[in-house]
Design a protein that fits this description.
homodimer, 317 residues, alpha/beta, Rossmann fold, five-stranded parallel beta sheet, 32% helix, oxidoreductase (chains A, B), NAD (chains A, B), D-isomer_DH_NAD-bd (chains A, B), Phosphoglycerate dehydrogenase (chains A, B)
Chain lengths: 317, 317
């Protein structure tokens, strides 16, 4: 049994632990696909971020029975070839919930509490107590999405004694949400959205779902945060929303075009805070991913139980 | 019955609500002590921040039966005269717990997640994904203090799935702390303190309680946050701790000298983040203070029940 990993810089302690826990398995930890490619034809299991596979490589990997994707996104996987060969695919769905929830709360606190102004005061050696720092505690948050990440945000928001409202296709009630509504009811709840957090994936239903009327419906002290996908709303709509003071601020981690072009007006807009698609980044990412892998490897070797986060190659998720 | 308030800028809605709810009471909302002083001799109840009273004014206030202090600090109250006259004193103890807990979590997130660097990238229109953002989730927090504010911080920390360790004089277990220790045991727990939050008041026991050895005992990635009192530790000790990398960063809201002098080395130290004693500031402060007052006014008028936050003038707390 041979496991080939194309994940760069897997920490030594993880490599050692896997080798110790699975004596019968040969592990090859490679530094990226260029190195891993040489061993593909012997691999029974392949560990990847999912962006380096193509039909040709699947063909090369004659022994391949299982692909472990250390990512939630699977857009680039050659599912047709995978399906034909009956290769198993699992991913790390849910792994982003904790860092992304922490990101959202962190950014909302930062904007509400004037972090940028204090950075400036510090630079100027200025003892300035005139800022009014808003609290997030006790306010109302509307989350667009009610999945694992959305629930993670709502869970923390509730710890801050916020009221949490979730909006999803079904409108079904979900943990950590005080109330949930259907997307069609979005307009009814936006006037409560002092904090509006979008964690929607990009699908035909969510593309450009938000328009200027949605921002007009929010309170004028609202802070909008998007860490889902950049095509939820046009950049220009966000600019109009903040420049006309329909809302107070926008925190953006995702954009229509990434990297955000150097001359994009967002950079200069005071009421926009930009992070470079880092909401899901975490030093705990690889360790957590390999924990899921290890659990699945036990299942795979023992040939009983259900693999975690198994993907249906027909649907692609 | 006359209530005189020296609190500046009491929101209209609070004034209206009190007048409506207490028909039998005459309220005089004054803009500070200069204006309030004129009415002191008729006041049955006086509302103050507690810094404007002196023995002379207590003497003038011949009718005074109750002083409501809209503050937690009572250092400047003329307790001798108050005690002689048998005047009741209440304060707003506990009112800082929520904003200060939010402040602490906000600042720890901000430092752990490199907020200052992202502010800089934004200024430079720089899409930089190379920063490693540490998570607070799952880490360990040591809180010096286990009172209302400390518990508020620990409660939020637990929501982030942090382990919380409290240190107090008694070492008694308290809500939201996984473990509690006595001050004498401080050294044993500091090596676990990835986040060390100080919320101790200034007493003879806490003055200069921390020395360089304490910082040496913390992990070198520790972030130290002081929002208690500035005389917990010498400025120079903090500077040495960060400059010698005994700890990674210090977040300071309180200082030995306030305002922090313009030429103080803290301002230029990259590993120090300064806020100008604003951790307890909150736009909800006055409303929450008047909620406590209103509750107490009912008790006071009905002459039954126990006043909230009643102070013993002999002890001064």
């Amino acid at each position: 049994m041979k496991v080939v990993s194309a994940i760069k810089r897997v920490p030594e302690d993880i490599q050692t632990r896997l080798k110790e826990n699975f004596n019968e398995v040969e592990f090859l930890f490679c530094h990226g696909i260029e190195e891993a490619e040489r061993y593909l034809k012997e691999a029974d299991v392949f560990i990847t971020y999912g962006e380096d596979l193509n039909p040709e490589r699947i063909k090369q990997a004659r022994q391949l029975k299982w692909i472990m994707v250390l990512s939630a996104g699977l857009d680039k996987m050659p599912f047709q070839e995978i399906q034909q060969r009956g290769i198993l695919v699992t991913n790390v769905r849910g792994i982003h919930a904790e860092p992304m929830a922490e990101y959202a709360i962190s950014m909302l606190l930062q904007v509400s509490r004037n972090a940028k102004a204090y950075v400036e005061f510090e630079k100027n050696h200025e003892w300035n107590r005139r800022m009014i720092n808003q609290e997030i505690s006790g306010r109302t948050m509307v989350v667009l999405g009610t999945g694992a990440i959305a629930q993670g945000v709502a869970r923390l928001a509730q710890a801050f004694r916020m009221k949490t409202i979730g909006v999803s296709r079904s409108g079904n009630s979900k943990p950590h949400f005080d109330e949930t509504y259907k997307v069609e009811e979005l307009h009814q709840v936006l006037d409560q959205g002092e904090y509006v957090v979008a964690v929607l994936p990009s699908t035909k239903d969510t593309q450009y779902l938000l328009n200027l009327d949605h921002f007009k419906a929010m309170p004028d002290h609202a802070i909008f945060l998007n860490m889902g996908r950049g095509d939820l709303v046009q950049s220009d709509v966000i600019l109009q929303a903040v420049q006309n003071s329909y809302i107070a601020h926008a925190v953006l981690d995702v954009f229509e075009e990434e990297p955000l072009p150097e001359d994009h007006p967002f950079w200069e807009e005071e009421k926009v805070t930009i992070t470079p698609h880092t909401s899901g980044q975490s030093p705990g990412y690889v360790p957590r991913g390999f924990e899921i892998f290890e659990e699945n490897l036990h299942t795979f070797l023992n040939k009983k139980g259900e693999l975690k986060n198994k993907i249906d190659p027909k649907r692609g998720y």
